[in-house]
Amino acid sequence: GIVMPGKKLYVSRHQKKAEREHQKKAAAKERATQYMKYANLYIKNLDDSVNSNTLKEVFSEYGDIVSAKVMYDKAVHVSRGFGFVCFKEQDSANNAATAMNGRILSGKPLYV
Fold first, then answer.
1. Distance between CA atoms of 43 and 81, rounded to whole angstroms?
2. What digits encode the pLDDT tens for the residues 52-78?
3. Which residues of the chain have pLDDT under 50?
4. Does the predicted model carry a pTM greater than 0.70?
5. SS3 sequence, 38-53?
6. CA–CA separation, 30 and 28 (whole Å)
7. Residues 107/50, Cβ–Cβ less than 8 Å
8. Residues 6+ away with beta carbon under 8 Å from 60
């Protein structure tokens, strides 16, 4: 790409709409297939002070983590009070869910 003041431009050949949609669907299917082999946990009742790094540190004692993400409101960038932790192994996720459900984190009980 070429860097212009404050913007990046990308140059590629022209594609028909159907071709672009096909590539988009194929990429989405590939991402879905990739994450199907992992165990994803939904965590709610998170305090506003908890961020993705904190979530990853707290849950990492139960196994290898692929990703940890706290969801934020895009407009004001404030935590929405829930997040996701993705484990490599189902057993690790089950152990974490059992151990962490009801545990107090930053003054609030977690619901896994």
1. 9
2. 999 999 999 998 998 999 999 888 888
3. none
4. no
5. CEEEEEECCCCCCCHH
6. 5
7. no
8. none
